[in-house]
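go over this:
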Amino acid sequence: MADADEAEMPRGNVIEEDVDLSDEAQDFRFLSALSSQDAKIPKRGEKDFEPHATSLQSNTLAASRQAMHNALAFQRSHAPKTHTLATYHPESNMAYCYAPRGPLFARMGSTFSAADDPLGNDERRGQRLWLLPEEVLYLLERGTVDVRWPSEVDDGEGLPMGLQAGYAMFIGGSGGLTFERFSVYSALKRQGYTVLRARTWNGPGPPAGAEDQPPSSAQQGLFKLGLSRWWRTLFWTAREEGTDYGEPLLQPGLYRNYSEIYRRLALIPFHDTPAMTPDITTPATDPAFRITYHLYKPGNTTFKKTLPGPPDFRVAVIDGRATLMPTLSQLSALLDTTPHDPPKDAQQLYPKLKQGYRNVILAVVDQGVTSYMRVSDAVFGREKLYDRAVAARTKALLSPT
């Protein structure tokens, strides 16, 4: 009997693994202390470990719920100096505004030509700024714009659109904006990046031009390759053509450095992106693996909406719940849609391999949680470690002491 009583006694050092502290009732009474004069957010109150059915705990919970209700029911308004009124356009699923106010519009929105403007070529076309669904929803979330439904005769400027209606109208449909794409867009915008749609937003995009492909060997020429590298390649190719693979790899002889030995051991051909034949056709990419956004760093001072220039990063948004692990062919087709961007010769080894000759960032969204990973077309066979060692020793010998 004593053993049974001892088994039922709680032990202070034992922690129940099935207790989730996030399921406990939150104390929102600190919201009642907020005012316009407060300069900092007050600290959160303490939470009870478990309910014990007392009047004190019930009153505390009721006060916390009422404080949360009051905070959510607070009327939010736009300042007159920064108030920007936008009108929803159902046919294009976009919104337009006149004379937008604020620094965010310097890198958001666009003015369409007379042929592309959904409202036609009227007298106010040049003053009309069109916002894409992800742009207007992001601005609506942060309270920068006041979106209105199309005006009728009896409602003046139109009825205001709430945030719930904004999610219902702008996410989904034929525009291609999904919750995963918008969550990545809003997160990157909050971090200061300039985010633009890629040409492959709704399809494979146009075929890549010749400037996006690696130069051929004829275009590179002798001086591009370097005289020493060309000389070594010439004799190495001649020796390789006359090699009898039944003979030993290392013939008896005099070897003055290890580089000659390592070159004789390099028999397996490696993947070499710059040496591949340029392909200017449109790659057959999988719809689940296509570049979604072009990113520009916050400190990019050369960005212009009319001429953005090459982006700093290319992001492909992937739904982690609806997409399996990409195959090699899917990743290869995705990388083929990116331009040829070789690393610098003076760059360190590991950053050089990380950048590769083509690279893209995968933004995998799993139920609202986003993970970023870089995939690059790196050429490991071009980085000869033995040549680097010889070059380092030569540089050390030639440097003045």
